[in-house]
Amino acid sequence: MERSRSQQAGVTPSISRWLGYRSSPPKHLPLYGVALWSFIAAFCGVSVIQATFRAPYFTQRAVPPIIGSYGASAVLIYAAIDSPLAQPRTLVGGHFIGALIGICISKLFRLLPPEHYIEFQWLAASLSVSLAIVAMQLTKTVHPPAGATALLAIIDQQFIDLSWYLLPVVLLSSTLALIVALLVNNIQRRYPVFWFTADAPLLAEPSGALSGHGDSKTNLANREDLSMT
Question: For labelling, which of 17, 24, 103, 111 has a CA lying 20 to 30 Å from the CA of 62?
Answer without folding.
Answer: 111
